[in-house]
Amino acid sequence: MKVIRQFNVFDRETDKLVEEILITDFKLEEIKGVIRPSKHDPALYDCYEVEGSLKEYFEGLGYSFDLESKIYFLCCFQDKE
């Protein structure tokens, strides 16, 4: 199984999921240095809100975030392939 990483994007007013953005250049070890995951989540399977240094990291890779109207979460799921 393959682990897929993406941003789940929610509208701030309605809390509805409005977009899923695939992350094609996910570097687990680099991101673990930014997030500092708990011992129970070493592979970053939990969802993390994109803010602060995590937001800055992904902006450095070319992603942009509209935090005034949306909330972004770094999430993952397993693909069957």
Set out the fold topology.
Blueprint: E1 2-11, E2 17-22, H1 28-35, E3 48-49, H2 52-60, E4 70-79
Antiparallel strand pairs: 1-2, 1-4, 3-4
Describe this structure in words.
This protein has helices spanning 28-35, 52-60; strands spanning 2-11, 17-22, 48-49, 70-79. A four-stranded antiparallel beta sheet has the order 2-1-4-3, with no helix packed on it. The model has no long low-confidence stretch (mean pLDDT 94). The protein has a single domain, classed as Chitinase A, domain 3. It is an alpha+beta fold. It contains two helices and four strands; from the N terminus they run E-E-H-E-H-E.
Characteristics:
81 residues, alpha+beta, Chitinase A, domain 3, four-stranded antiparallel beta sheet, 4 strands, 35% strand, globular, DUF7683 domain-containing protein
